[in-house]
Design a protein that fits this description.
The protein is of the alpha/beta class. Helix content is 46%, strand content 14%.
Length: 274
Amino acid sequence: MRRLLLALLLLGTALQAARPQRVVSQSVGTDELLLALADPDQIAALSHLAGDRRFSPVATEAARFPAIRESSVESVLRHRPDLVLAASYTQPETLALLRRTGVRMVVLTRFDTLEDVYANLRTLGRELGQEARAEALIRRCQERAAALAARLAGVRQVRVLGVSIYPFTPGVATTFQDICDHAGALNVAAEGGLRGHAPTPSERLLLWQAEVLVATGDGSTQATLAAIPHYRVLPAFRAGRLVVIPEPLVSSVSHHRLEAFEALAKALHPERFR
């Protein structure tokens, strides 16, 4: 028995030593995943946007940790990382320079669906030595998504259009499409053939017959959109059928996007939440 206990103790010590102890996250998306999975003492620094509420859904939690000053290699290496987390949308030059330093890196590349989120959680769970924590979080997310699907069973999909002050519209293969898929919504841009974040086809918007417009922002969003002619003439906009969801939730590439699923579902199908 003593030998068994000693063996288990040595195994636990070895596993702990194998875990990275100074992890630096280079993007908001990896910040969200790292904060959910790592022990606090494993986190050396988060991205320079982690504490900015305009972009980060984990700003309050992120305030407890140091942040890199910008996305430069020098700023990352200043924290002496033994693991760097990045995303495929990180500047290619930065990724290339980080690889040349020889520091251990994980670059996440897929974010479009909730299944992509689960895959990323499992990848980071293995890298951080936190597999059990990753699986527990995935189970909670699956249960939450299943509960939302049960509430929305049989609803008529509402025709929605993602609108923005930027000249792009989200079609298929975007986080916005994933939100629609879980919120009882039909993305008319995807139906119209748009893929990714494509240039807004102003002349086609009326033909898509959107019933509700979905935007990110705050109380000033409607006034801002009113200055854009191709939105101002849409019947949905003129009727005030606009749903505004916080930007950090809509753009989240982590499990926090479930909050966007629920927010849009409640706005489109309030009768299912009474």
